[in-house]
Specification:
The chain is of the alpha+beta class. The protein is 21% helix and 28% strand. The chain is globular and about 40 Å long.
Length: 166
Amino acid sequence: MSNVTLKGQPISIDGQFPAVGTPAPAFSLVGGDLSDVTLSKFSGKRKVLNIFPSVDTPTCAMSVRHFNESASQLDNTVVLCISADLPFAQARFCGAEGLSQVVNLSLMRGHQFLNDYGVAIASGPLAGLAARAVVVLDEHDKVIHAEMVGEIADEPNYDAALAALS
């Protein structure tokens, strides 16, 4: 279990956060068309898993914008934005913002992901949502970068995540 804060208040996080060098846990999340989307769908590509509570918060929205612009310009790389938001809300946000270089995935039927990736907020006002984290995978689904953001209201270290892809 990891501990992070939300505006300075301790929040417990359940599950096992993936370590660099380990294989990424398989997952099944919900795509924009309500279909089940698995990790294997992106086989052979490098993946940035941008994990956050909800696109309806300023910091989460900023991370989607940043990764849409930065990581999506890298060869053979897909950015997966993973949150508890329904696919309709994710699509509405990206449509309004003109963001087309990220893939939104919803946790609506993928609650196992929260524990498998060690991002399950277990206490506090955001209990049941995902903590803010970035996990970068190589083409073979090996973890090459993993950051659990210590303060949920803070942005991730974009430079470190992108450097793992160079």
